From TrEMBL, chain A:
CDD domains: TM_PBP2. It is a multi-pass membrane protein. The chain crosses the membrane at residues 25-45, 239-267, 381-403, 409-430. Residues 243-427 form the ABC transmembrane type-1 domain. This is Phosphonate ABC transporter, permease protein PhnE. PROSITE patterns: ABC_TM1. The gene is phnE.
From TrEMBL, chain B:
Residues 92-277 form the ABC transmembrane type-1 domain. This is Phosphonate ABC transporter, permease protein PhnE. PANTHER family: ABC TRANSPORT SYSTEM PERMEASE PROTEIN P69 (PTHR30043:SF1), PHOSPHONATES TRANSPORT SYSTEM PERMEASE PROTEIN (PTHR30043). It is found in: Cell membrane. The gene is phnE.
Length: 438, 290
């Protein structure tokens, strides 16, 4: 009989080996699955096409523009008038008749010296000559009817010249030349961020920090500050407002949601709401608010409220009510009942019990969660701002969509990162303070 | 010796008096805190309200107009709805693929970086500070920024969104994974070291098996977050269902049935992924086998 009872027991060695085999299957199977999935995604996202079409042109422009600025010399083909402006912007324009020393203005001819012996000469109303050392001289005549007619030196067209009937673009290390039917633009690059502190019309443009300090000490501090603060090109005042607006959105979204969820969580917690129906209603409400994504709330609310920080704040608030409601109600279900019993024994009503029996227990946990969300919501506010049109998110998307002021984009990105770091430090500091029990 | 004054409260004859005084001061401070918070909150709300295109109270009656329009249009064209759902399914799959690929790539890179910065496991302790700052920066840059810049550099489509979300995921996972790995027992690592295992062998055989359940759990949570992020980035121009939603919205009334279909798909996906992810996470953290 004992033999029969033992018979079903399998050979332990074989059993172990079988388990090893199964484990091995998992260990090699999972990476293989991940790899297979990534290969599938590569083709689903048209990876081969992207690689084939990849060209670093835009990337190079972006990197160069991030740390440098360009000065445009633009000639209008209608009347041959020449205009010199930083980044081609109206606010960065040189006064009529004035020019930097690498441009010589004379009636009917403008000579632009680029680096390394590259020279562009703008002749008359629509004729252009570009001398490129090591290649030759390019001449072009533009007209409204005939487009741009260009003559190149002998030989095949190099890949830094991009020409069609209506537009010629020549990109060299020394600068760029773009000729269209209506205008010729020469761009020369310089390192740094132009006019970051003061615009050309400010009397303080071009002064060194020492000079500025001594003038500030001499009673011009307010004027100097105004010159910087109201800089039209970098718009420091608007940028500061935008950062403030973003933090404002996060603040209202997080703390407003926390206030509302503090109430609704009691109705969703098993320990405080005996009626299963009420509880279910509130739980499903939280699930719904969380499940309808912030994107949908943003879209829905922007129909009613239009663009602005309030729309973003309310959208964030709705999603966060769902998240906080769930988190808070879970915390509330785990509170110690003894403290509540103690308060109840004095004859306290439900509100007093909640105030003195529950809140002191859960407040540190809640506050910690709220502060944690506050930091991540600052980041979300940037994204929501890009959709609803408020805060630094809006400035960023606008600057990126124009695709030319990459140094401004860099400036905004740096400020955004600093803002997130600051909020992170602030919320971390407050949480540590809270845990220590101030 | 007995009458060394400890505090003003201890000196009073009646201990209850001292206690009540303590309570009064605390209440006062709490009251000041609450009042300050209330002032902050109200002024923040008023400022935001003032800078918004439409005011809160004026817009309030209109909040339900748009959902009502969407629902009524979808109701009128209910017969078309299944077709629309089918039509937008590929975009939805793209959105989910963006999130999944970004989560996978981000978690894999994040795992390696996490092990490089974990105390006791880091092979090059000097590099720890640098990599940690790198992770901080990756977490701090909003994904929309990276996505928009990449759209300029490599063109529209799902890839910029995927890279942007993956970079953010690297930062987030690197930090969380390293916190988990810090609590791993060093016993297996020491054992492997004593038989001459290399750093990568020690990590794969000694650390990963210990932390895998928690890591997978965090990874799933990140996947849920990334699906939302991927939908939002689509709205900014990076493909997927968000992009379709923006187009449907820009057509205005008359085409809201499309918006309704997209809302439904998005809602269903988010809820499904949350539910499945939640169930798996609960099993993982409770220690049950997958």
């Amino acid at each position: 009989m004992t033999d029969a009872a033992l018979a079903p027991a399998r050979d332990p060695a074989a059993e172990t080996l079988r388990r090893f085999a199964r484990l091995r299957l998992w260990i090699f199977g999972i990476p293989a699955l991940i790899l297979a999935y990534l290969v599938y995604v590569f083709f689903a996202f048209e990876g081969p096409r992207l690689i084939a079409e990849a060209d670093g042109e835009n990337g190079r422009i972006l990197l160069a523009d991030m740390v440098s600025y360009k000065v445009h010399v633009t000639r209008d083909h209608r009347d041959g008038s020449v205009e010199i402006a930083m980044e081609g912007e109206r606010k960065g324009r040189y006064p009529e008749g004035e020019a930097p020393d690498w441009v010589s203005l004379s009636p009917g001819e403008t000579v632009v010296q680029l680096r390394d012996g590259h020279v562009v000469t703008l002749i008359g109303e629509a004729e252009t000559r570009f001398e490129v050392p090591g290649y030759g001289t390019i001449t072009a005549i533009a007209s409204r009817s005939g487009g741009v007619e260009t003559t190149y030196p002998e030989g095949p067209l190099p890949d830094w010249i991009n020409a069609s009937g209506n537009r010629v673009s020549i990109t060299t290390d020394a600068g760029r030349l773009i000729i269209t039917r209506s205008a010729t633009t020469v761009m020369r690059y310089f390192p740094g961020w132009e006019l970051f502190f003061f615009t050309l019309d400010s009397p303080y443009q071009g002064l060194g920090p020492g000079e500025l300090l001594s003038r500030a000490a001499g009673g011009e501090a307010a004027a100097i500050w105004q010159g910087f603060w109201r800089n039209d090109m970098w718009r420091h005042r608007e940028v500061a407002w935008a950062i403030f607006e973003t933090i404002l959105m996060a603040f209202i979204g997080t703390f407003g949601a926390a206030l509302i969820a503090l109430v609704t969580a009691f109705f969703a917690a098993r320990t405080f709401t005996r009626f299963a129906l009420v509880r279910q209603v509130f739980r499903r409400l939280h699930d719904f608010l969380r499940g309808v994504d912030g994107l949908i709330w943003t879209v829905v609310l922007s129909r009613a409220y239009g663009p602005g920080p309030l729309t973003g704040a309310l959208a964030m608030m709705l999603t966060e009510i769902g998240t906080f409601g769930k988190l808070f109600s879970e915390t509330l279900e785990n509170v110690d009942q003894k403290q509540i019993e103690g308060v109840r024994s004095t004859g306290a009503g439900a509100l007093t019990r909640a105030r003195f029996g529950v809140i002191p227990q859960v407040m540190p946990v809640f506050l910690s969660q709220i502060l944690y969300s506050f930091e991540s919501n600052t980041r979300s506010a940037t994204v929501i701002g890009a959709i609803t049109g408020g805060g630094i998110g809006l400035l960023l998307t606008q600057a990126i969509i124009t695709q030319k002021d990459w140094e401004e984009v860099t400036y905004y990105i740096i400020l955004t990162v600093l803002m997130v770091f600051a909020m992170d430090a602030l919320s971390g500091w407050a949480r540590r303070k809270l845990i220590k029990g101030s | 010796m007995a009458d060394i004054p400890l505090s003003p409260a201890a000196r009073t004859a009646d201990p209850a008096e001292g206690y009540l005084e303590l309570v009064r001061t605390r209440r006062l401070w709490n009251g000041v805190g609450v009042l300050l918070f209330a002032i902050f909150m109200v002024s923040a709300f008023l400022t935001a309200n003032g800078r918004n295109a439409g005011g809160f109270w004026n817009g309030l009656p209109n909040v339900f107009d748009f959902p009502a329009d969407v629902v009524s249009e979808a109701w009128d064209k209910a017969a078309l709805l299944p077709g629309l759902l089918w039509q937008f399914l590929p975009s939805l799959i793209e959105t989910v693929n963006i999130a999944a690929a970004a989560t996978l790539i981000g978690a894999l890179v994040g795992a390696v970086l996490a092990l490089l910065v974990t105390r006791g496991l880091a092979p090059a302790p000097r590099a720890v500070g640098v990599i940690r700052r790198l992770l901080d920066i990756l977490r701090a840059v909003p994904d929309v920024v990276i996505a928009l810049v990449l759209i300029f550099v490599i063109g529209g489509g799902p890839v910029p969104a995927m890279i942007a979300i993956a970079l953010h995921t690297v930062g987030a996972m690197g930090k969380l994974f390293s916190e988990v790995a810090e609590n791993a027992s060093l016993g297996p690592v020491e054992g492997l070291r004593s038989v001459g295992a290399t750093w990568s062998q020690r990590m794969i055989l000694g650390v990963i098996p210990q932390v895998a359940p928690n890591w997978v759990s965090y990874g799933l949570l990140r996947f849920e977050i990334n699906i939302r992020a991927s939908a939002i980035l689509g709205f900014v121009g990076a493909g997927g269902i968000g992009y379709d939603l923006r187009n449907a919205m820009s057509w205005g009334p008359g085409r809201f049935d499309e918006a309704a279909a997209i809302f439904l798909l998005l809602f269903a996906t988010i809820v499904t992924v949350d539910q499945i992810g939640g169930a798996i996470r609960q099993r993982l953290t409770r220690g049950a086998a997958l």
